[in-house]
Write the structure tokens for this entry.
Amino acid sequence: MPHDDHSHSLLPSDPALRVKALETLLVEKGLVDPAALDEIIDTYSHKIGPQNGAKVVAKAWVDPDFRAALLADATSAVRDLGYYGRQGEHMVAVENTATMHNLVVCTLCSCYPWPLLGIPPGWYKSDAYRARAVREPRAVLSEFGTTLAPETKIRVWDSTAEIRYLVIPERPEGTDGWSEQKLAGIVTRDAMIGTRLIEAPE
Amino acid sequence: MSRVHDMGGRFGDGAIDPNEPDEVFPQDWHGRALALTLAAGGLGQWNLDISRHARECLSPKDYARFGYYEKWIAGLTDLLVENGVLTQEELITLTPAPNSPLQERKMLAEYVAKILASGGPADRPSDIPALFTVGQQVTTRVHGNTLVDGGHTRLPSYARGKTGWIIAHHGTHVFPDSNAHRLGEAPQPLYSVGFYARDLWDTAENPEDEVVLDLWQSYLEPA
């Protein structure tokens, strides 16, 4: 049977104190290494984030063979670039076109491709996004300032299993001849989730 | 019946605020909560599905009032006690009992990078053959977890009893409905299944829009 009793109510109610109390208890008990916690926080604060996914998208824009490999087997394609790990064990890349826009959500929790995008932003984890993205994606997009052409259909991916989704946004006009590195600089986290488009450069 | 986390399609949540601090962890304790959850998971006393279910088992009142990492820390605390890693007495007194047998499993800082980079794939070999092919019409079952009443499932309420089509077959994956309750990994075929918005919602924004869910074979039957 699922356990519906709640030991957490025994800890202090202030969340910062609650975390501190639990950490102190586990460290004193010899079960947690505080330096390991620092290392995990440093990894997701500085080493793993949307800059990884941006490099993947930029490469897909300039390299047709890589794009084909990414669409065929994203797990292998991004692993070859060194991107693999927790919450990115099974990757699928989905490509936006003039007729199809992709949007990613996890209605049941907050599944997200950590090795490519890092830790999800607050809005991705919010009740409002989780509840509404599947039922009214166009209204949700409008709150990000994103409007699609009427003929563009939306496909919302609800990440209900261990498959993690990366949206390949459309490459904007006015970027012909740009280097992969320069292109990676305009690829945003939100565009790789599907809530924003990438604007043409000024 | 559903649990509080199963909110896809729900009305009443209001607008989304897409603008927020640039920091990955806006408050220091957010990062500590995430790291503590990963490090405690490394003790090997539960799996990912058990961990998700612990957060889903928060009372609706707590789930609604807790922030994201408050849910994590509450779920973690409940798991630590349920699995005998900590006792309620230790939580109340904040005084640890000595000589935990799990000390040798402590995640050390020097192994963190390797552990995070190696991940935990969910695909497993299975003798269960794939019953469906890409393009085939399928209907989802109307029940949630059929193994444990009120148990963990990855078939959201909004997609139950609905007809869609197979978009992709992902091989055989660990079945969360079983694994979350220590009933075995029970791997079975996993598919991406597409549904038209008009078949999911009373009033769709655009009836031709689609929602795709990753669903296990036992959630599905031929349409």
Q: What stands out?
A: Chain A touches chain B through 88 residues (CB under 8 Å). Chain A has a mean pLDDT of 95. The longest strand of chain A covers residues 90-95. The CA atoms of residues 54 and 184 of chain A lie 5 Å apart.
